[in-house]
Amino acid sequence: MTYIPAANRYDRMIYRRCGTSGLKLPAISLGLWHNFGHDTPHDTKRAICQAAFDHGITHFDLANNYGPPPGSAEEAFGEILRTDFRGFRDELIISSKAGYLMWDGPYGEFGSRKYTIASCDQSLKRMGVEYVDIFYSHRFDPDTPLEETMMALDHIVRSGRALYVGLSSYNSEKTRAAAAILRDLGTPCLIHQPSYNILNRWVETDGLKTTLKELGIGSIAFTPLAQGILTGKYLKGVPQGSRASQGKSLDPAIITPRAIESVRKLDEIAKTRGQTLAQLALAWVLREGGITSALIGASKPEQVVDCAGAIANLDFTSQELAQIDQIAEEKDVNLWAKSSQTE
Ligand SMILES: NC(=O)c1ccc[n+]([C@@H]2O[C@H](COP(=O)([O-])OP(=O)(O)OC[C@H]3O[C@@H](n4cnc5c(N)ncnc54)[C@H](OP(=O)(O)O)[C@@H]3O)[C@@H](O)[C@H]2O)c1
After folding, report:
1. What whole-number distance in Å separates Cα of residue 249 and Cα of residue 267?
2. How far apart are CA 187 and CA 85, in angstroms?
3. What is the pTM of this model?
């Protein structure tokens, strides 16, 4: 059946300026890391993307390696662009990234000019688009001169392959250095994509959040729900079909009784605010203080709808914030710590 987007979609979302740029992003964005590979029926992918767009989620985040197999999420999204989203390209912000292992040999990962530009070309081909809106360096490469990676990003914009560039998981110091190079090249860094949620606050301790504000760079927080831990789903154990049950990126070993006790207390606070736990977790990421957009994942369209509802209440009392701080100890949920600490 032909998909017709909800007419009121832009009344259902709020849009925030990305740093000091002219680009606005939806407060909630959708990432296609999981549930867009060959392990998921195409109709589920379509339903998730349709639910997102119907709720004003205009930003879809991909990377070369999303799948499984790597590349298949971009292919699936390309199919959705050609069908359901046909005619809506100018209403969408599509991002992709290069940095993690994508193909064999010495040119298949990290930050060389050779890899970065070839990977961008492959992503455009898989999605069937002429350009992406944002192209990221997915991780800092300790062995390639930073200038080389940034010059590759600059070239990607100048050659029309992307409109803006971003950095992901670079620490504060490397972000400053990369942003200075990009500024000198005339392609300012639009956005930074770090992991950030109630249980993972490295962007605060590292100083990255302050740095981004100072440099006028926008931010999009990935894993804002700690891959699902910050939702009600693990309160009664690990449900069948959940990410933690699939042997993927969420190790069930970190969902300890102690972690669940914290999650239960957070759930109590969410209830007093009239929110689901997922909504509270997203509102916390988006609270006053600098994150432009919360980048969620979803395995069902209903989850997208629940998450989009977070924007109804983004304000916290200082008492609520203090309670959340007290409950939330850093859990071992930051899989990207190594990348952001690379010297
Ligand atoms: N730059 C990077 O290095 C990097 C790394 C990782 C991710 N990312 C980006 O960030 C995006 C989001 O990552 P993520 O998927 O880990 O984010 P997340 O939002 O923290 O976790 C998503 C998972 O939470 C569960 N969920 C979502 N909404 C829910 C709801 N309302 N109620 C109950 N459960 C809910 C679902 O789990 P189930 O599947 O168990 O149902 C879903 O798959 C990725 O798609 C990708 O675009 C970037």
Report:
1. 24
2. 29
3. 0.97
What single string gives the DSSP state of each residue in 157-198? Answer: HHTTSEEEEEEES--HHHHHHHHHHHHHHT--EEEEE-B-BT
CATH placement of domain 13-341 = 3.20.20.100
Sign, CA dihedral 128-129-133-138, equals positive
Distance 298 CA to ligand 1 centre (A): 6
| pLDDT 10s digits, 125-140 | 999 999 999 999 999 9
Query: CB of 96 closer than 6 A to ligand 1?
Result: no
Supply 170's token pair.
């670079």
Does 150 contact ligand 1 (Cβ within 6 A)?
no
What are the φ and ψ backbone dihedral angles of 311, each rounded to 5 degrees? -70, -10
Nearest protein Cα to ligand 1, atom 21: 227
232 token code pair:
């009600």
Q: Which atom of ligand 1 has the smallest separation from the CA of 243?
A: 40
Q: CA–CA distance from 13 to each of 27, 303, 308, 336 (Å)?
A: 7, 15, 7, 29
Atom of ligand 1 nearest to the CA of 246: 40
Give the pLDDT score at 343: 46
